[in-house]
Amino acid sequence: MTTSPLRADAARNRQRLVAAAGVVLATRGLDAPLDDIAREAGVGNATLYRHFPSRCALIAAVFADRLREVVASMETFLNDDDPWRGFSSHLIHLCELQARDRALADLLTTRVSGAPELEELRRQVLAGLVELIRRAQVAGVLRKDFKHHDVVLILMANAGLLERTADHAPDAWRRQLDFILDGLRQVDGRAGRGAPLADVLEAMQAMAQRYGCGD
Amino acid sequence: MTTSPLRADAARNRQRLVAAAGVVLATRGLDAPLDDIAREAGVGNATLYRHFPSRCALIAAVFADRLREVVASMETFLNDDDPWRGFSSHLIHLCELQARDRALADLLTTRVSGAPELEELRRQVLAGLVELIRRAQVAGVLRKDFKHHDVVLILMANAGLLERTADHAPDAWRRQLDFILDGLRQVDGRAGRGAPLADVLEAMQAMAQRYGCGD
Fold first, then answer.
1. At residue A185, what are phi and psi to the nearest 5 degrees?
2. Is A194 left (phi over 0), alpha (psi -120 to 50) or beta?
3. In this complex, do A175 and B161 lie within 8 Å of one another by their Cβ atoms?
4. Which residues does A175 contact at the CB level (< 8 Å), separation at least 6?
5. What is the pLDDT of residue B88?
6. B164/A109 Cβ within 8 A
7. Calpha distance A29→A104 (Å, rounded)
């Protein structure tokens, strides 16, 4: 099957729009004007709406792009001989992505729904994370009461810290994360308190509603 | 000197307005409509504006009330025989105040300016905090690289976490804080990274600008 010039053109425009959206959303946040994205991509508004009938569809496409990078980098961390370094590098990597990308900071803790591709990527990230945690706990270096949804809480707190410090204390997140990582090291007799998975999932769904991308 | 009935009435109205503002700002945030506060206090808008010509003046009055409570509770923590318990109880107390009061969550990390009473209360809180940290570090229970402005970062992250979880995972902040506290315990060879005091102060001033209460 050959691709018609028209179809190739459409694919190129779509690609341009996702790239432009990535830049504009990262710097101006998830509620950046769609007009600015069309302009950045060098296409008309009508073209944008033809490819992405809603802001959510565009957000989902950008987010899928970023999650593919997370999945790829996870391979490296899973192959690390040192289970603590593998686990902590992944966490540092996620927080660093948040620091570099304002839109991603909140998207990482948002359950954007209605995008099957995103669901599959999320599943892969979660599976990798569960394995990183399992390895570090089996090796006795990560506290036993740490759960995968604690990562969501860490990322939510980090997003809030970045929002308040990004312009004036850009290294603050790294310092704070060092304190947290030191607190996650296995030491006998530690036991954390509640915040069940179901509650955290609800908080993630509420984030999606905030952007009008919920169920 | 006797107080005229008119003056007593004015003082009562002022008190009512501060109390009402405390409730309304705590539940609806710092940008809650001033009309709602006047209604809650049972006074007219003109009375509100006579007492508090700007939103900032009202915020400063409410905030001073809360800071007086912080100063009072600090006495207990400073008198604790166990320096770790004294320090950590103060931190838990601050985070708990944030969890209970949406407005305070961000105010605690905002340099509201132009209110000399606030400045004096802030000075007292800072002096108490510095002493709590000093005692815990001298006793060898708090990591040596912990600085008083790290408390600001912890409170900023906590505010962000609360914003995202308060409605659905109300215990999340406590769990996260346990991880941080475990990371703050003194263990040999720990060294945190940058985020100098000057940067953190700038971030606090930026918070004030966000609410139109900066210099």
1. -60, 140
2. beta
3. no
4. B150, B153, B192, B193, B194, B195
5. 96
6. yes
7. 9
